[in-house]
Amino acid sequence: MARPMVVIATAILFCLVGVSCEPLLGSVDVGSAPQVSEQMSGSEAARVAPVQPLYPAPPVLGGGPMEVVGGNPMLALPPLDAGAPASAPPALEPPAPEMETDAGPAAPVPRGVVLEGPANELEPVGLPGGEPRLGSCEGGVVIGVRPTANPSLAVFGQRLTFIEPICGRVSIDAAGPSLSVVRDDSLLTWDATAPLLGAPSREVPTRA
Amino acid sequence: MIWVVQPTTLCPEAAPVLVGLSGQYDPIAPDYPSSDAIRSLVIECAPLVIAPNEIDIVAATAGHQLISQADGFATTGTATYQSSCPGGSVVTQIHVDAGYWLDGFVLGCSRLRSL
After folding, report:
1. Where are the alpha helices (DSSP H) in chain A?
2. Which residue out of A131, A133, A159, A189 would a mutagenesis test of the B interface target, given it has the greatest number of B Cβ atoms within 10 Å?
3. Which of A137, A153, A158, A178 to mutate to test the interface with B (most CBs of B within 10 A)?
4. How many CB atoms lie within 10 A of CB A184?
């Protein structure tokens, strides 16, 4: 083999084993994409599918087609249809399966109901007499009564002798705009502030 | 003289709150003219509704029910009485004047609102 041939063969071998050939061949840009021709025939343009945006682009003032300045027509967004409704963005990931997580919304709880100020007393029925007592449903409402009566046909019989309120608690259901009223005997209080006498006696007083 | 506790009278689910009491009575008791005698008791119940402002809770103007216990004590009087909460308020207290028997009562009415 002649000497020049040996030199050329050695250079080719260096290039094949990965040694840079730049000193031998000069600077070569092998990474840049080939420029796409701005000129494209109609049939070629038809074969190129337009790139759909992931999210709808904001409307363009004036409603005209969007212009791409200096860009590659293959990457241009299609003209916006000003009359078409905005489409929902495609899902990037499949929906996660439903599961309870700490980050989820808190379970709804019933809302409380309160009284607005002190009670407004109506006109009395009957006459004042005997002993005054005031039964209140603290924070609740009266949902019924438990009367006591003297059904005897004797003198002072055939009449009611007492009325005791039955209390309930009102709340707004968590599931929706509806109300619940639940009996709650713990709400009943008897005012013992003078001249009121607190809780009523359950025993018939002995007549003098 | 005896006291006999009568069956509890409760408002129904459709009209769950008490808004009034009514019945018959003798304004002048024949056996004790210085007092009266309440002879029967009927409870007036109303539905509760949420007002359009979504804050006030009021007794509905429609759907009231008058309820008395069939097995409870009741007899006739010479007059009727009625006491009812106005303006969507509901009964939250009862002031009772009673000794040997029930002389009279005063209903206390309140307005409700949500928290």
Report:
1. 3-16, 22-25, 42-47
2. A159
3. A158
4. 18
CA dihedral B86, A121, B90, A141 (to 10 degrees): 180
Q: Dihedral sign, CA of A73, A74, A75, A79?
A: positive
pTM of the predicted model as reported, rounded to 2 decimal places: 0.67
Nearest to A145 among B41, B101, B109 (CB): B41
Q: CB count, 10 Å around CB of B103?
A: 26
**Cβ contact (<8 Å) for B114 and A112?**
yes
Tokens standing for residue B79 = 């007059």
Please tell me the distance from the alpha carbon of residue A190 to that of residue B93, in angstroms, as a whole number: 10
- Is the ipTM higher than 0.95? The answer is yes
> Is cis: bond before A195, omega within 30 of 0?
yes
A117 φψ region: left (φ > 0), alpha (ψ -120 to 50), beta (else): left
List the single residue in B36, B57, B114 with the smallest CB-CB distance to A126: B36
Q: Which two tokens stand for residue A66?
A: 């969007």
Q: Nearest CA of chain B to the CA of A81: how many Å?
A: 43
Strand partners, A159: A150
The answer to whether residues B94 and A135 touch, using CB atoms and an 8 Å cutoff, is yes
Tally of CA atoms within 13 A in the half-sphere of A61 that contains its CB: 0
Decide: A184 and A167 in contact? Cβ < 8 Å. Answer: yes
**Chain A residue numbers touching B89 (CB-CB < 8 A):** 120
Q: Which two tokens stand for residue A60?
A: 């363009």
Summarize pLDDT for B1-59 with one digit per residue, the tens.
899 999 999 999 999 999 999 999 999 999 999 999 999 999 999 999 999 999 999 99
